Hints:
Blueprint: E1 3-10, H1 14-25, E2 30-33, E3 49-50, H2 62-78, E4 83-91, H3 99-111, E5 122-125, E6 141-150, H4 152-165, E7 169-171, E8 175-181, E9 186-192, E10 195-206, H5 212-220, E11 228-239, E12 247-251, E13 257-263, E14 267-271, E15 275-276, H6 288-299, E16 311-322, E17 336-341, E18 348-353, H7 359-371, H8 396-407, H9 413-423, H10 427-431, E19 443-445, E20 448-449, H11 450-459, H12 465-472, H13 481-494
Parallel strand pairs: 1-2, 1-10, 2-7, 4-12, 10-18
Antiparallel strand pairs: 3-6, 4-6, 5-6, 8-9, 9-10, 11-14, 11-15, 11-16, 12-13, 13-14, 17-18, 19-20
Helix pairs in contact: 1-4, 1-7, 8-9
Amino acid sequence: xxxxxDLLVIGGGINxxxxxxxxxGRGMRVLLVEKDDLASHTSSASTKLVHGGxxxxxxxxxxxxxxxxxxxxxxxxxxxxxxxxLRFVMPHEPSMRPKWMLRAGLMLYDRIGGRMSLPKSxxxxxxxxxxxxxxxxxxxxxxEYSDCWVEDSxxxxxxxxxxxxxGADVQVRTACIxxxxxxxxxxxxxEDTNGTKTVTAKAVVNASGPFVDRIARxxxxxxxxxxxxxxxxxxxxxxxxxxxxxxxxxxxxxGRIVFAIPYERDFTLIGTTDLLYEGDLDHVAIAxxxxxxxxxxxxxxxxxxxxxxxxxTTYSGVRPLYEDNAASNSTVTRDYVFELEAGGxxxxxxxxxxxxxxxxxxxxxALEKLAGVMNVPGTNWTAHAPLPGxxxxxxxxxxxxxxxxxxxxxxxxxxxxRLARAYGTRLDRVLDNASCCEDLGQLFGGDLYExxxxxxxxxxxxxxxDDVLWRRSKLGLHLPAEAHSAVADWxxxxx
Length: 495
């Protein structure tokens, strides 16, 4: 007998996880399927920012910026372990945007979202430390403003985990290979490592990111029009370029901006690009022209050139932007758009675009859309609901970290910080009553022990070394190849 759900959500990126969580918390029976790992595609290839989108003001996307800034506050409150404030410095380049424009834009940025907790923007003298030792001498002044950093893949995983704990069924490495529409339900054929099965759902949410048109055609037929502009964004990770915990935002002659952000203690993250993409969506990689562009973009500002020899690794993702016929890829709207099709039987809602920052609000709006064609119980609830590990109260992360250091004095400080950032108040579950590092089991390299692997496999859907080393953490940057092989062997033995 087929299992029956209220809602089948296809796609385990941030939008799919957010919708599944919201629906499950309202009492709906939800199935979330992802053909690969959670956050395998676009959601793990971001610039790692929860931000209002300062540059969107140039394109008059005031609603998007205001909503993003309000959501920045919500996410910072609900996930303080994986989201934290970051100060950005924008050097003034006289040949580009004038000072008055930057100043006016930042004043609007400080106010458009309502009351904000983060420090407001201000002018900054680049001729004094630390900037004078980092930037070229021709750069004299600039501006400073606030946004937030986010561990993007962990945000997806924790959102999916919360969905599961509220009743959702989360199935990774499970592809939806067929959809048959009936008057009052969908029959979905799912395929995993054990073969195929059929489930029934009253409605489908197509949140498959860059694959959204593909799923829409599977459901509705080959005549379904395409609504996507697929835009590739690439990043390079280089050795640490500057001291300090601030980030830089660099204007470019083509009108774009490029970020340079402290990353994983030893590195600097530089990105992003905007290129129309028509390749294989399962194998997205940086192109030589993108590498050259990012090196040149950063070299235009740093006092020493960024070279390809410094690159430790790269990553790329495809943004599934709603096609609004904008003249350039950088000006296509980053807002989200829904396509609801309910005229031919059971409803299907396809999600286009969106930003990590607004995923929670997107989920609310998605369920509002569905409520017009089916029963959606409950009311909006996620604004004040911490994500797993984020229930730290008003005292916040700093107090939690101090308290954890008192309870676990045997943990090396850097290891404690990494684990506290990753797991927050669920740190105890990861340590599993250990009283010394030896109690954590096999050491795979660095500070990665078997206890953490076991937790990730049993509670956070990890099935492979890449799931652990590149999505649920970034330990792949720090550990040698033999550690990767050892983790892979551990998963093989566990299978």
